[in-house]
Design brief:
CATH architecture of the largest domain: 3-Layer(aba) Sandwich
Largest sheet: 8 strands, mixed
Strand order of the largest sheet: 17-18-16-19-22-13-24-23
Structural class: alpha/beta
Number of domains: 7
Number of helices: 43
CATH class of the largest domain: Alpha Beta
Number of strands: 32
């Protein structure tokens, strides 16, 4: 999101003369492609109407109150936000849009909200007349400068508008996310800090003596990336005072014990078993088992009394009772049926208690050395932060944490002019996704609110899943509690929330079908409801109510559980076998639904057969993608992976990186070996083996000698040698971009990648790498390779090149799917366990700062660290439950989950679902192969269980290497028929190449078996459009190699070599005709030219995309919209062909006039003849409703 600050003249010195800063959105095509999916599916059941439920209406109308809305998934949250803004503007006619502030969690959400607001205001303007219409038109004109953006955008705007008051240079810049320059400054700061410590270290408690250097570096990077969270944690306890630190340990121990006791005693199983224990007394006065039962009942009664509200029993006493209950010896009593029945109660009760009890060391005293080490580490952290701050100051740059902290400081200073300005100007502050804020952000927003400012906060605590980004659901829950009460609500520094507070709930789901809603309610009442303590970092659960009623349009069940057995090959092989079986079950499930032509709902309430684009596969981790991609590719199912490995960690990038390193240094054997084994040359291991065995000196020298021998069977070596010599000769002659382009086109590497799993993504990434090279043409090939390696090592994230997703299965993480919805959702790979953090440095304000000083597994961890890790683990577990909720609530029409039989891991999605199903379905574990329909409860909910017993894939072989006891490592695309060659040099090379599933002759050109014999018009049209887009501003000739690359990329189908040449020749002919045309001269002399201009419009709440091929402003100042056509026709049919495209051009013409107030002529350029056909000027023939469409227009000058 771009941020524009208002200009300040010399006279604008007082706060009263300043204007509020503006948030301006620079909308990109990719952003809108992502946004389109979100918008197109919202409120499907209500077909785009603006009718509100009574709860929504109350939230909208309460503009005189501060309102906190707990909004369930699919409850129309965005619409309520928009209508709340509209209601403010309607209720207070004098109110300006600039008096409203809307804060969203992401830029994408801000874009969507701005679009919806403009659409709604345009609708109101079209329905009004007189002063009302003028009022709405004025509001519409103000929307583009409205305060709609992220918290970071808001803070940056505050700093830009009040630089003196905020103590920043007015010319400061902000590091972008994953900015390479910031990573360099971080690295330099850590290095300088460690060097200084190394020079001056004296005490035996120096961190450098007690911890590995790499571990200390990780700690420092962790704190520098999360300084605000660290400061909050540090403020929780006074860790620099020995006695206060001991008090902190005791306090945290008490909190952990309380949480464990509440979790245990509120568990339904505890209530059930303890009640049965009371009811099953044994006869006989001297029966030892009966005496044991009585003693246990007495302890249970004391625990129950201790946890009552009015109890004053110390928590330590109750803890001792619980521990004693877990230590009873059941080896006593007579052996009879009554005793055995009692033991069947006692055993699960004892196990339940043990499952809840953590392993805590005895005593609460902390070793002096542990405390001293903690203080020393804190001192090093403080030193490093000071160095980092100084380096940012030298660079005149701030990071995102600085934006928030400096803005907060400016707002909370005594008599703050910044705060006075905002408190006097803002009428309402609206916060979306409030569950994803943290305490500091919430306080900052509250500081902006004056006595007449109202807060409107909306979110869902059950969808708080961004703890790793600093989000804290505790903030939502704390504010929730304050909004319930009537007492004073003070935020910070004496700042109170003025006005009446109102807590509202939206629980009606307009997204999911009724049976899906029922399933979600049943499942999460168990997972988030009863049986859990009310810790602030946990979400409660209130049932959703379904509003969709479209059962008659569908047949079959909406919830499907695919339960499958995994052949027992031992624990070591279970994961590998699951990675083979489960993806095929996922693919088969998709194919079955497609063959059954299941019906999905449209936005208007109608129904249609499902397409591949309706499916979404959601997983927990990026690492789960690879196996699923293989399963989909095996079944020829189109898919696109949204996420996964970052661009810099893709294999195709590593391949080019290795090649560039070799070209920079031909003596680099490792780089050369990586290139030879990559799909660029695709040398088999036996050929490389022969090459290495005869190696004397460098590998490059050995390759050249082998090539000179010209032996049979070594043709791939000869070709590799020839091409490498060619590239080495081009290094001093070509720019970096030209060199890479030559490599790609000469080796056909882009087409080779297309034949592989996820080939479209790999090929697109290759062209993105070329674009990155063009931005660094000042670098040599070796320097560029080092830049890629440095960026990757610093963790700089580069997104993969975007792909078209309209009719392909979406494969993404649950986090990426948040905020989206899909007709059909599949949830595989549910067995990943929630693990305790292995980090040795933990910090959060719920437990403070803790360091694990234990050096080995046999060493005892400090008590404070153990307690902190227990709290942190419980926070992660609570978020993992919420993550499953987010995944399940993405489904609109169908939800499928995949459950393997053996779910041994505790605290996983699979184990929770298995436990839930077993409590609802008595014969869950006895079902045989086939389909079984089962009820979930008395409310009529049901699901289908598809029981499978798949055989292990025949292509997968289990073997154990001799004397190792380890399973061999099967690469992603390895073939079982490949010979196994053991070469230490090869094994040491990272990354390993993945052999593509093809057998092309030397990889000169990949050939399609179904290539057409003729060039179809669509292919020619696509190619010509691409050529026109790539033409340089001076209209000069495109290089042959670039035209070839454009031809190969313009069609995803693999083309015959002769077809490619014919397509390039046809392109040359069309360009030759173009350079003799009227259009060519117009573009050369034009004042302004924009090609492939994207714009987006929202009509009746549905996003539409327009993209005229050309917009130009002639030298005489006239605007012209041009569309390219490659139609072939007789000359007398020219006007008839032109008229066929008139309606589309009129739409472009009207949209441009509506959006930018530009009156443009329209024309068609017929590429085959070079004719520019201009339509006569005059009124539009396309009927459109006034103000019926919302458009956002982006123009990029070329």
């Amino acid at each position: 999101m771009s941020l524009i600050s208002p200009p300040r003249s010399k006279r604008e010195n007082s706060a009263s003369s300043r204007v509020l800063p503006m948030f301006a959105v620079a909308v990109t095509t990719r952003r809108f492609a992502e946004l389109q999916n979100s918008i197109n599916h919202k409120q499907a059941s209500r077909a785009g109407t603006m009718e509100l439920t009574s709860a929504q209406q109350l939230a909208v109308n309460s503009v005189e109150d501060n309102v906190l809305v707990a909004a369930g998934a699919g409850s129309g949250k965005t619409m309520v936000l928009v209508e709340r803004v509209i209601e403010n503007l309607r209720r207070f006619p004098e109110l300006k849009v600039s008096s409203l502030l809307a804060v969203t969690f992401t830029r994408k959400a801000a874009e969507e909200m701005r679009i919806r607001l403009k659409a709604r205001i345009k609708q109101l303007a079209s329905q009004s007349c007189g002063n009302d219409a003028l009022r709405w038109k004025t509001a519409l004109a103000e929307i583009d400068s409205a305060h709609i953006g992220t918290i970071h955008s808001l803070c940056q705007s505050i700093l830009k508008t009040f630089p003196v008051e905020c103590g920043v240079d007015p010319q400061f810049e902000t590091f972008e996310e994953d900015d390479f320059e910031r990573e360099e400054i971080l690295e330099l700061s850590v290095q300088q800090s460690l060097r200084e410590l190394l020079i001056e270290q004296e005490a035996e408690n120096s961190p450098l003596i007690n911890y590995p250097l790499e571990q200390i570096r990780n700690w420092l990077f962790q704190v520098l990336n999360e300084p605000l969270q660290f400061d909050e944690a540090l403020a929780t306890f006074d860790l620099e005072d020995r006695e206060k630190f001991q008090e902190a340990v005791r306090f945290l121990l008490k909190r952990v014990q309380e949480r464990v006791i509440v979790d245990l005693t509120s568990n339904p199983e505890w209530s059930f078993l303890t009640q049965r224990l009371r009811e099953n007394a044994l006869p006989g006065d001297g029966n030892k088992m009966e005496l044991l039962r009585q003693e246990m009942v007495e302890r249970i009664d004391r625990v129950s009394e201790a946890i009552s509200k009015d109890s004053e029993v110390p928590i330590g006493h109750t803890w001792a009772e619980i521990v004693a209950l877990a230590d009873f010896d059941l080896r006593c009593g007579r052996k009879n049926e009554e005793t055995n029945n009692l033991k069947q109660i006692l055993k699960p009760l004892r196990q339940l208690i043990k499952d809840h009890l953590p392993d805590l060391p005895e005593g609460v005293d902390t070793d002096d050395k542990d405390w001293e080490l903690l203080v020393a580490v804190l001192s090093l952290i403080s030193r490093t932060r000071a160095i980092y701050a100084e380096k940012k100051k030298e660079a005149q740059k701030l990071d995102f944490n600085d934006l928030i902290w400096l803005a907060y400081q400016a707002l909370t200073r005594p008599d703050s002019k910044v705060q006075q300005f905002y408190r006097s100007h803002l009428k309402e502050i609206l916060v979306d996704e409030f569950q994803d804020t943290n305490r500091l952000q919430a306080r900052l927003l509250a500081c902006l609110a004056g006595p007449s400012t109202r807060l409107f906060l909306i979110g869902d605590d059950k969808q708080s899943i961004y703890k790793f980004q600093g989000a804290d659901v505790s903030t939502f829950n704390e504010w929730h509690d304050h909004f319930v009460g009537e007492e004073r609500f003070s935020i910070a520094n004496g700042i109170d929330i003025a006005g009446k507070r109102r807590l509202l709930t939206l629980h009606e789901s307009f997204r999911s079908q009724a049976r899906i809603v029922h399933f979600i309610n049943e499942l999460f009442t168990d997972l988030l409801g009863a049986g859990h303590s009310k810790a602030k970092y946990r979400a409660g659960y209130r049932a959703l109510s379904a509003t969709r009623n479209d059962e008659e349009a569908h047949s079959g069940e909406r919830i499907e559980v695919v339960s499958f057995a995994v052949p027992d090959h031992g624990d070591r092989f279970q994961e590998q076998l699951l990675d083979q079986i489960e993806p095929r079950l996922v693919a088969d499930s998709i194919l079955k639904k497609m063959s059954d032509r299941i019906q999905v709902s449209n936005k208007d309430g109608s129904h249609r057969p499902a397409s591949y684009g309706d499916f979404a596969i959601l997983v927990q981790r990026n690492g789960d993608f690879a196996a699923l991609e293989r399963g989909l590719a095996e079944r020829a199912i189109p898919y696109v992976t949204l996420g996964g490995k970052t661009f810099l960690r893709r294999q195709e990038v590593f391949d080019i990186e290795n090649l560039l390193e070799f070209l920079a240094d031909p003596m680099n054997d490792h780089a050369l070996l990586g290139v030879l084994r990559s799909p660029i040359f695709s040398l088999p291991d036996d050929a490389i083996h022969k090459l290495v065995l005869g190696k004397r000196g460098s590998l490059w020298g050995a390759l050249q000698r082998k090539a000179r021998e010209k032996q049979d069977g070594l043709q791939p070596l000869n070709r590799a040698c020839h091409l490498l010599k060619l590239f080495l000769g081009q290094v001093p002659l070509k720019s970096l971009r030209e060199l890479l382009l030559s490599i790609i086109t000469t080796t056909s590497y882009d087409l080779v990648l297309l034949t592989m799993t996820d080939g479209r993504q790999r090929s697109r990434n290759l062209w993105k790498l070329l674009d990155l090279a063009s931005k660094n043409e000042h670098l040599s090939c070796g320097e560029f390779a080092r830049l890629l390696k440095t960026m990757e090592s610093f963790g700089v994230k580069q997104a993969n090149a975007p792909l078209e997703t309209s009719d392909a299965v979406k494969l993404m993480t649950i986090h990426k799917a948040k905020g989206l919805e899909f007709p059909i959702v599949l949830l595989p790979v549910l067995r990943a366990k929630s693990k305790a953090s292995s980090a040795k440095l933990l910090f959060h304000y719920h437990y403070g700062v803790a360091i694990n000083t234990a050096r080995g597994r046999e060493d005892t961890k400090p008590l404070f660290y153990t307690l902190a890790s227990l709290v942190d683990e419980d926070m992660e577990l609570a978020e993992k439950r919420r993550l499953l909720y987010v995944a399940a609530t993405r489904a609109r029409d169908y939800l499928t989950v995949f459950l393997p039989d053996e779910t041994r891991r505790e605290r996983s999605f699979a184990s929770w679902l298995k436990t839930f199903l077993r409590t609802r379905i008595e014969d869950m574990d006895e079902l045989e192969s086939g389909e079984h329909v089962r009820c979930l409860g008395s409310n009529g909910g049901s699901l289908i269980i598809r029981r499978c017993a798949p055989k292990p894939p025949t292509s997968y072989q289990f073997s154990i290497e001799e004397n190792t006891g380890k399973a061999p490592n099967h690469s992603e695309d390895s073939s079982s028929s490949d010979p196994e060659i053991k070469l230490d040099l090869i094994d040491a090379i990272e990354p390993q190449w993945r052999k593509p599933p093809s057998s092309g002759n030397g990889w000169l050109r990949v050939t399609s078996r179904t290539a057409d014999a003729t060039l179809d018009p669509v292919r020619i049209g696509n190619f010509f459009h691409s050529l026109m887009e790539f033409l340089p501003p001076d209209q000069s000739q495109l290089p042959d190699e670039l035209m070839t690359a454009i031809a190969a990329a313009s069609d995803e189908r693999l083309v015959q070599g002769q077809d490619l040449a014919r397509l390039v020749n046809e392109g040359r002919r069309l360009l030759s005709t173009y350079k003799q045309s009227e259009l060519y001269e117009m573009i050369r002399s034009a004042q302004y030219v924009s090609r492939e201009l994207p714009y987006h419009k929202l009509s009746n709440d549905e996003l539409e995309i327009g993209r005229p091929d050309l917009l130009l402003k002639s030298k005489r100042g006239k605007w012209l919209i041009v569309d390219y056509k490659t139609d072939t026709f007789m000359p007398e049919d020219l006007e008839q062909h032109a008229r066929q495209h008139l309606r589309q051009l009129r739409t472009y013409q009207d949209d441009l006039l509506s959006i930018a107030n530009i009156s443009a002529e329209i024309a068609i350029y017929f590429a085959q003849t070079g004719i520019l056909y201009k339509f006569p000027t005059g009124p539009s023939t396309v009927v459109k409703e006034p103000f019926g469409q919302l458009s956002i227009f982006q123009i990029e000058t070329q």
